[in-house]
Amino acid sequence: xxxxxxxxxxxxxxxxxxxxxxxxxxxxxxxxxxxxxxxxxxxxxxxxxxxxxxxxxxxxxxxxxxxxxxxxxxxxxxxxxxxxxxxxxxxxxxxxxxxxxxxxxxxxxxxxxxxxxxxxxxxxxxxxxxxxxxxxxxxxxxxxxxxxxxxxxxxxxxxxxxxxxxxxxxxxxxxxxxxxxxxxxxxxxxxxxxxxxxxxxxxxxxxxxxxxxxxxxxxxxxxxxxxxxxxxxxxxxxxxxxxxxxxxxxxxxxxxxxxxxxxxxxxxxxxxxxxxxxxxxxxxxxxxxxxxxxxxxxxxxxxxxxxxxxxxxxxxxxxxxxxxxxxxxxxxxxxxxxxxxxxxxxxxxxxxxxxxxxxxxxxxxxxxxxxxxxxxxxxxxxxxxxxxxxxxxxxxxxxxxxxxxxxxxxxxxxxxxxxxxxxxxxxxxxxxxxxxxxxxxxxxxxxxxxxxxxxxxxxxxxxxxxxxxxxxxxxxxxxxxxxxxxxxxxxxxxxxxxxxxxxxxxxxxxxxxxxxxxxxxxxxxxxxxxxxxxxxxxxxxxxxxxxxxxxxxxxxxxxxxx
Length: 562
Hints:
The strands form two sheets. The chain has a five-stranded mixed β-sheet. It has a four-stranded antiparallel β-sheet with strand order 2-1-4-3, with helices on one face. The protein folds into three domains: about 5-185, Four Helix Bundle (Hemerythrin (Met), subunit A); about 255-335, 2-Layer Sandwich (Beta-Lactamase); about 425-560, Heat Shock Protein 90, CATH 3.30.565.10. By secondary structure, it is an alpha+beta fold. The chain has helices spanning about 5-35, 40-60, 65-80, 80-85, 95-115, 120-190, 205-260, 265-275, 330-390, 395-420, 430-445, 465-480, 525-535; strands at about 280-285, 290-295, 305, 315-320, 450-455, 490-495, 500-505, 535-545, 545-555. The longest helix has about 70 residues, at about 120-190. It contains 13 helices and nine strands. A hairpin with a 2-residue loop joins strand 8 and strand 9 (about 545-555). Helix 2 (about 40-60) packs antiparallel against helix 6 (about 120-190) and helix 7 packs antiparallel against helix 8. The relative contact order is 0.05.
C-alpha cells in the first residue's frame, strides 16, 4: 500500500508554521519596542520647550544676563538628536510637520529676543507654546500607536498560533490518536485472546493505515493458530485437571488418615472432603461393626457401591449418591482400596492394643494372686490358729481377733473384685459384646433387671477407652446392686453429632446420700480418675427414686498413661 500523505510530514509542517509565526510576531514586537526606547525622552524634551520659552521671556525683562545661555540651551533642546530622528518615513507625517514648524518659527522669535522686542515676543509666545503642545500630543499619540501596533501584532500572532495549533491537534486526533487508540484497543482484545475487535478504519492513505491493515492480517492469522492451539491445550488441560484432582483428593485423604491416630472422626472427615470435592449428595462406609456417613441421603435415590476389599471376602462397602456427574471410577476404586486398608489397619491396631492391655492386666492379676492373695490367706490361717490358742474367757483378745478377721475378709473380698476387674477382657475390641457379657454375668448374681441400649459409635472407641468405659459401667452397676438395693437398672449410651460420648447408668434404688466414700472404699474415686483419663467428666445425680451416673467424654482417645 502506497503512502500518499505522510502524517509525520503534515505534523512537521504545522509545527514549522507555528515556529515561524512565533518568530514573526516576536520579532515585530521587539523591533517596535526597540524603536520606542527614547520616546519618553523625546516627549520630555518637547515638553521642556514650553518652560524654556516662558523662561526666556522672564530673562529678557528681569535677568538679561542669562538670556544668551538660555537661548543656546533652547536651541540645543530643539536640535536634540532624538527629535531630529522624527524625520523618518515611518514616523507619522503630522508629527514631522509640527516639528518642522517649531524649528521654522523659532528663528523669528529668537531675533525678537535678541533685539529686545519683548512685547512682540510675549504676544507671539502663546501661539508658539500651543504649537509645542500639539507637537507633544502628537509624540504621545505616536508612542501609543506603536504600543497598539505591538499589542495588535502579538494578538494576531497568538490567534494565528492558537488556530494553527488547534488545527494541528484536530488533525493529530483524527489521523494519529484515533487510529492509535483503535490499535491499542485491538491489541488489548488480542492480548485477552479475543480476536473479534472493532474494525480498524483509517480514511487517509497514511502510515497508520498501512499499520492497521498489517495488524488486521496478523490478527487473522494468529486467530487461526490460536484456535488450533487452544483446542489442543483444552483437551490436555482437562485430562491433567482430572488427574490432578484425583491425586490431590487421594493425597489429602491419605494425609488425613495418617497424620494422627486413627479414630472415627478421621473417617468422617475424609468422607466429608470427598463429598464436597466431588459434589456428591451422600457417601457412607458400611463395614460392620463400623458405619460412617456424610451428606444427606436422597430417598428415593440411586446408590453406587464398591467393595472395601482388603482380603477375601470383602470387609464392607463404599457407597455414594450423586445428582450431577458421577466421580471417576479410578478415583472411587482407589478411595475404596485406601479406606479398606485403613479400616483393616485400625481394627488390627485396636486388637493389638487390646491384647497388650489384656496381657498386662492378666500379668498384674497373676502377680496379685501369687503374692498378695497368698499373704492374705496365710494371715487368715495364722489368725485362726491365734484364735484357738487364746483363752476363750479373754473377751478383749477375741474382740481384737474378730476385728482383724473382718478386716482380712474385706481385704480378701476387695482383692477378689480387683482380680475380677483385671481379668475382665474385651474380645476382638468389641465393647458392645463386652458390655453385654458383663451385664449377663451380673444379672446371674442379682435379682435386679438390667437393660442395655446403645447407639452407633460405641464400637469405634479405642482400646484404652473401651477398658475405662467398661470398668466405670461395671463399678456403677455393682454399686446399684450392692448398696442401692435397686430392682431396675438401665444402661444407655448416646453419641452426639459433634462426636461426644455419653454413658448413663440409672437405677431405682434407695439413692446416694453423699459422694464421700467411707474409709477403705475407693470405687467412686477410681471411677472419677478413669473419667479424667478419658478426658471427660463423671457426674452423680440423686433422683426422687434412685441415682443417675453420667459419664461424658469427647471423641478423641484419652492420652493419659495407663
